[in-house]
Amino acid sequence: MEKYIQKFIRYLEIEKNYSQHTVVNYKGDLEDFNRFLGGAEVEKVDYLTLRKYLAVLKEKSLGNRSVGRRLSALRSFFKFLTRESYIKVNPILMLSSPKLDKHLPSFLTEDEVSRLIESAFAKDKDDLLGPRDRAILEAFYSSGLRISELVGLDVDDIDFISGILKVRGKGKKERIVPVGEAALSAIKKYLDRKKKQTQAVFLNKNNKRLTTRGVRGIVDKHIHSVGIRQGVSPHTLRHSFATHLLNRGADLRTVQELLGHANLSTTQIYTHLTTDKLKSVYDKAHPHA
Hints:
Blueprint: H1 2-14, H2 20-37, H3 47-59, H4 64-83, H5 110-118, H6 129-143, H7 147-151, E1 158-159, E2 164-168, E3 174-178, H8 181-193, H9 212-226, H10 234-247, H11 252-259, H12 264-267, H13 275-285
Antiparallel strand pairs: 1-2, 2-3
Helix pairs in contact: 1-2, 2-4, 5-6, 6-8, 6-10
């Protein structure tokens, strides 16, 4: 089993170009399944074996989303083994995934976003952290970036004249996204103040590229400072970006492109968040409203 896991992981990294985050998760899920097998050969895994594993996961009180992710890893794994002729029959084809509950993403109001961004400011002329934090918050909201896309930004990825960013999204896929004047101005002010000129845009106190953990800490600090409700994260700004665009008339496919979603169905969840806008249009347009 272990040698097959190694082959599969190399396939994900080299041929599929999956992100390191996805590769690590898939590897962990497959290693968990291997422990369940207790040394049994992968060729002997059948539908009944998988049903027993599913029962074990349920006994651990894992949510449907966690179980679904593990089954997704196994589906990809057995599909790979079958295609490469390591096994003759794919045992997981008949196994159904648990139905996932649809969780609506949380978002901030336009006023809350403004308060959050305004909380980051330079305390004195030598303060670098204030301008950096403001540039981070502006970039998140202006372009709907994922946290991994923001920390991976290089100076060469920013076109200040055209007002666009080149970002590397999931699966290391590159896309071009527009960035607003407010965010460009904040980023430029921060870069002008940086004492150490590096390729990485956003640096920590040690002049190293900020990590995703560091960015979460920065956002948490400013959320706390303005007293916004709990449960807000960098991804909440991405949700807010999409929701506010739709509320102001943007079409779904444009928002899909801006977010870098492979499937429109992923973007459609944001339509559930625009009921106020829909009701407003309905009230104005329907004769019996």
